[in-house]
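To: structure desk
From: M.T.
Subject: fold request, one chain
Message: Could you run this one when you get a chance? Sequence is below, nothing fancy, just the single chain.
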Amino acid sequence: MNSKQKGVFEYLGLPGVISILGLAAGWMSVVRLLQNLPFLAISAAIIGFYLDCLDGYVARKTHKISEFGRQLDGTFDFFNYLVFAALLFWKYLSPNLLGILVGFLILATGAFRLIRFNVEGFVTKNNQLYYAGIVVCHVSLTAIILFFIQQFYPQIISIIAGPTMVIVSLLQISRILVKKTNAYGFWLTLAFILLVISLGFQTWQK
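Reply: Done. Structure tokens follow.
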């Protein structure tokens, strides 16, 4: 038995504290959805994404990468990306039985995807790291984009939203290889564009 047990902050470190701030943003996104403020919810979710990127960056730069941090990150990803995506889909894209079923599929496949990654890690092929299946933030991103399109083409989204989210959910548990890249500039820029669009819609609705 280990006589020296770590305290909370020894486990967390600065990367873990940033992860908790990301969880706070994720929680606020869910609260805003339940308050019928979807654009503010999306804004909070994007802030959570930025914090998710930041905690990994800080962990690498400070050499604080740990198994605890990886488990913490996966647990928070479930809430920040999957619970948010499932709730956004059900409440705004398909507020019916189909929305409930697809929302559950998002959660179930996402949970499997996160646990499998924690067990297996990356797939290595030709000295390149790959994820097995698409990553969970892509599910959230898809739901957000569908929601934005719905503002202009609601009839089209009513037809394609369900099948699209089913396909994206199942791709999480597929063995399709998704290259791990360091193209953070692209994803951070895309997130910023979505943040501006979301805040613009929120301002326009007032």
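Reply (cont.): The CA atoms of residues 169 and 198 lie 24 Å apart. Let me know if you need anything else for the meeting.
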